[in-house]
Inverse folding.
């Protein structure tokens, strides 16, 4: 019995590798946009921006998905310095290959509607969800706050590589990249041909404005710092900033109704990152009493679960700018997870999460091609039996 169990564990890495090989697009090499440096479009450390590009084929040759990588934010010089010499602040530290899965997969069986499109992943190294633009370089720490310039430089580069002939285009992204897809949605469309079908699919980017369990405005103050540090105001919704001020306009709930481009929100109502960092950040739980609950909602005490259910109610209220609009869609499940479109087992697999008997991939595809609208909000935890997958490794999405 023990020998058999040991043999199973020894073979587990082989099984995982075979699964990745069968379900993925393989690894796509990195491209450094060296000429962007002359435009000042650079990472926090001054290195050039980077992206990965898997070309489309056949009927998808004039269709494009631009996926924005996530990875949190920095809200002052100190936190930006912490990122500066990592992959989240320097292209010098990035992996030179990236696996393309989920919405970026190039196999029809795993990505039916978008497999043969041109698929691009833009790497994240500015810490502002691609909104920053400060001309002056920090003279002491050599920090560059140029996220908005990175976005524009890469998009213009892709236009020259064929996106200027796009018939279909999607701006997507996960986490901070999902927020970037919301904040840059109309801007993205402005670069594309007038006749193109252009839409946005943010994933796990709908961060909401609520106090933490101690009553502190932690995420509000944090986002205010991001906007001030990076000079983001000029790239946020003008109608929003005139009403609420720039800091609040980093929250999707205040800008969603002003987005003219069709948008489809993919998010968990119990977003694991938001519950861990917005509802119960470390400073609001100094003794770690929430530890078991934050690891698995099934471990929550009745009082903790009441707070978590309250977060879900606030999340649903924050979606009002997306609801009841024929051009907007949503897939809001009750899974305890963060980011779903880039993970094959969550995007399109036999056991992937479903709403209305529909996977995320099918819902997004039907909505994009206008085969049928999709606006569904899941019932409350723990009602959905398809939410069986583990929480995405939070190390990929830094705490704030």
């Amino acid at each position: 019995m023990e020998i058999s169990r040991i043999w199973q564990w020894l073979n587990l890495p082989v099984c995982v590798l075979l699964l990745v090989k069968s379900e993925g697009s393989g690894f796509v090499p990195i491209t450094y946009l060296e000429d962007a440096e002359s435009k000042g479009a650079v990472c926090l450390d001054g290195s050039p921006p980077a992206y990965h590009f898997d070309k489309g084929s056949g009927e998808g040759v004039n269709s494009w998905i631009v996926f924005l990588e996530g990875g949190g934010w920095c809200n002052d010089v100190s936190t930006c310095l912490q990122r500066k010499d990592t992959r989240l602040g320097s292209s010098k530290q990035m992996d030179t290959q990236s696996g393309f899965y989920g919405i970026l997969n190039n196999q029809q069986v795993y990505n039916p509607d978008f497999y043969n499109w041109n698929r691009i992943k833009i790497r994240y190294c500015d810490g502002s969800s691609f909104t920053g633009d400060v001309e002056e370089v920090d003279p002491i720490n050599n920090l560059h706050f140029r996220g908005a310039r990175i976005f524009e430089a890469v998009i213009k580069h892709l236009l020259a590589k064929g996106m200027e002939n796009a018939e279909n285009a999607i701006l997507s992204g996960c986490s901070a990249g999902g927020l970037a897809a919301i904040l840059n949605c109309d801007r993205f469309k402005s670069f594309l041909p007038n006749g193109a079908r252009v839409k946005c699919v943010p994933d796990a980017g709908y961060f909401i404005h609520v106090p933490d369990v101690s009553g502190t405005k932690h995420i509000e103050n944090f986002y205010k710092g991001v906007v001030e540090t990076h000079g983001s105001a000029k790239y946020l919704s003008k109608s929003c900033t005139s009403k609420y001020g720039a800091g609040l306009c980093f929250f999707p709930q205040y800008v969603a109704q002003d987005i003219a481009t069709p948008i489809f929100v993919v998010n968990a109502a119990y977003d694991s990152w938001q519950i861990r960092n917005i509802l119960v950040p470390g400073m609001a739980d100094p003794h770690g009493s929430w530890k078991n609950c934050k690891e698995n909602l099934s471990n929550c005490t009745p009082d903790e679960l009441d707070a978590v259910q309250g977060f879900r109610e606030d999340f649903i209220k924050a979606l009002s700018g997306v609801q009841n609009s024929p051009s907007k869609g949503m897939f809001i499940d009750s899974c305890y997870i963060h980011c779903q479109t880039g993970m094959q087992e969550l995007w399109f697999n036999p056991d992937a999460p479903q709403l209305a008997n529909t996977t995320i991939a099918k819902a997004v595809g039907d909505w994009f091609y206008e085969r049928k609208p999709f606006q569904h909000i899941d019932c409350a935890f723990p009602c959905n039996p398809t939410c069986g997958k583990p929480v995405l490794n939070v190390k990929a999405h830094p705490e704030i």
Summary: Residues 2-23 form the longest helix (22 residues). The domain at 2-396 is CATH 3.40.50 (Rossmann fold). The chain has one domain: 2-396.
